[in-house]
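Reviewer comment 2.1 asked that we show a complete input and output for one of the modelled complexes. We chose the guanosine-5'-diphosphate-alpha-D-mannose case, as it is the one discussed in the main text.
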Amino acid sequence: MKALILVGGFGTRLRPLTLSFPKPLVDFANKPMILHQIEALKAIGVDEVILAINYEPEQLLVMTNLGIKITCSQETEPLGTAGPLALARDKLVDGSGQPFFVLNSDVISEYPLEEFIAFHNAHGGEASIMVTKVDEPSKYGVLVMEEATGKVERFVEKPKLYVGNKINAGIYLLNPSVLDQIELRPTSIEKEIFPQIAEAEKLYAMVLPGFWMDIGQPRDYIIGLRLYLDSLRKKTPSKLANGPHIVGNVLVDETAEIGDGCLIGPDVAIGRDCVIESGVRLSRCTVMRGAHVKRYSCVSSSIIGWHSTVGQWARVENMSILGKNVNLYDEIYCNGGVVLHNKEIKSDIMKPDIVM
Ligand code: GDD
Ligand code: MG
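Response of the prediction step:
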């Protein structure tokens, strides 16, 4: 089976992290977002993953040696969420008539892909969508479906008025015949293709068991980490850190160094080669690869980008995001600061602000 992952888009809502790496390569729980999906696809026997991109593929070439064939399909202009399927048509269709997966690259879940295949094969329609329930459906694609069968009656992308609370989770299984309905031009699968298939009564939705989050925005990224770690706790608790300095669910790369007298957690990810000095307090945050948090500083509800430094006795909180290689000086207070890569921060950021 084959899968296509939509990895274009500009990831503007996750700046400044996405100014240094394309969104799919931004680390989530200590590995690039997209790797979570590639591993899930590989685990159920998908043999080729096509990355649909609209920038130069160089940066994505780190995705090698994963034991699965990875190819790129590069757009010369952004083709939206359906156009890339038309572009990759020859790669997706192999004459077997088998359905293929399509995934948004910024969603995180438990990926029950085998159940999804069984669901798709059983309903006899053309396309299947995974759905999940959320409290704030207006930022997503909303589906109205027949409870008993899963048949989708309506698909409304980002509705202004309330339609329902079951939303498109960004994980699809499509029959090759769907490609006959997509032209090679910028096209939205959500606005143009799914409503059409729903109209033809060939679109079905399966409610996703377990957690789900679109981690394409900082607040949701931080919530997504909590949900992901909760699920890890249930499934493979041995992957989580423990000890007297750990509170709740914490993921620590084995190469990270952690000093004495720290208090870490809940809901923290500490990446490869990080240095956390003594007496540091971390909660609800991500510290990315190569970052250095100096002694007695405190980081909460924030993201510390790759190779950044947090000075001693500093305090970083309230959805602060430090881009790559930021240097926050000693004793600085950073309250909701969104700091561009390579910046030196020498004075306090007293209220949420962008520092360019
Ligand atoms: N190749 C390519 N080209 N990919 C693209 C392009 C493009 O022009 N535009 C967007 N993408 C990719 C993004 O990288 C992302 O993986 C996916 O398509 C969806 O785009 P987002 O920009 O993240 O959309 P969204 O989050 O507002 O909404 C989508 O996801 C929701 C679930 O997270 C929609 O599919 C909603 O219906 C859905 O509920
Ligand atoms: Mg998104």
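The mean pLDDT is 94. We note this here for comparison with the apo prediction described in Section 3.2.
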